[in-house]
Amino acid sequence: xxxxxxxxxxxxxxxxxxxxxxxxxxxxxxxxxxxxxxxxxxxxxxxxxxxxxxxxxxxxxxxxxxxxxxxxxxxxxxxxxxxxxxxxxxxxxxxxxxxxxxxxxxxxxxxxxxxxxxxxxxxxxxxxxxxxxxxxxxxxxxxxxxxxxxxxxxxxxxxxxxxxxxxxxxxxxxxxxxxxxxxxxxxxxxxxxxxxxxxxxxxxxxxxxxxxxxxxxxxxxxxxxxxxxxxxxxxxxxxxxxxxxxxxxxxxxxxxxxxxxxxxxxxxxxxxxxxxxxxxxxxxxxxxxxxxxxxxxxxxxxxxxxxxxxxxxxxxxxxxxxxxxxxxxxxxxxxxxxxxxxxxxxxxxxxxxxxxxxxxxxxxxxxxxxxxxxxxxxxxxxxxxxxxxxxxxxxxxxxxxxxxxxxxxxxx
Length: 412
Prior knowledge:
CATH class of the largest domain: Mainly Alpha
Oligomer: single chain
Structural class: alpha+beta
Number of domains: 3
Number of strands: 8
């Protein structure tokens, strides 16, 4: 009798929390996640058990300094891990995207009491989700809020409104919410997802990234304490003009998908029981056409990973730039955002082409629903669509031609 994945994991993976980028336990965790990834995607099994293992491993504390209870990893090491997690299961990787984005913002900010408290929660295993998007706003990503509002309530506030595309929040312990405050400016709040009045709805119906919990979040008269609100004028607010981590994170997941495609392609060649009568070799593994196809996928995987990590290096240079002053930090952030944008254009294309090449390796039999090989293309296409490449390419071109800085709100 085959044991359930959850019970198997509980017995075989013991975490020396928090895991670090090269922890043996981390590799064991990713191997375990990969085992059930296709079945979860095909049958829409929400990975609560996997997220609980991630919580136990304290993977979310990867970037927090060791002195503050974290893994102490560099940004490059973080993205190496993201690529591996995207290889294991792009749904799970996407679930924690907003967690790492918000954690990075806190890490860049002044260490006030509340920021230390939030980092301590992450170091203890807490996972952060996000609720920012409102469909009533006509221009996506502009940072506007019209629906989700804070109103005064004694020494705190009450929150009412609705958010959409709340990726990861279904599995999270804390949720980071953009809100409209009484003076008509915007702010962020970070509150527990279990607080009374928060309703997380699993209504995401995309053809890819099916398990990310990218659904609707309703807030009904939710109590918010004064210290949970991050105003634009607060000294511990992150003011970096470009929020690079979330866009590069999606690109890294697509790089991971190419690695997964490569693994499936090589397995298919070895397992292929027959070939075409007009093939140049009777054995699939000896067929130069199939060898060439797998070789192209391998090259795509290498190039995608190299591009993502080169862009991630810019994040590691930001602290030194910040020490040189605001102008130097802004210039370094712009350069890093540009590199992340360029990386997206190339890696997205490589991921979609690689996912198609997989079917050239396997033939028509690989289109069976039970095999679920189409998940690679579906997931890569969905990730790519979060921030359409033509808009991204236009912004890059405007900078190269006219020196126009990139937009400083969502998607950059």
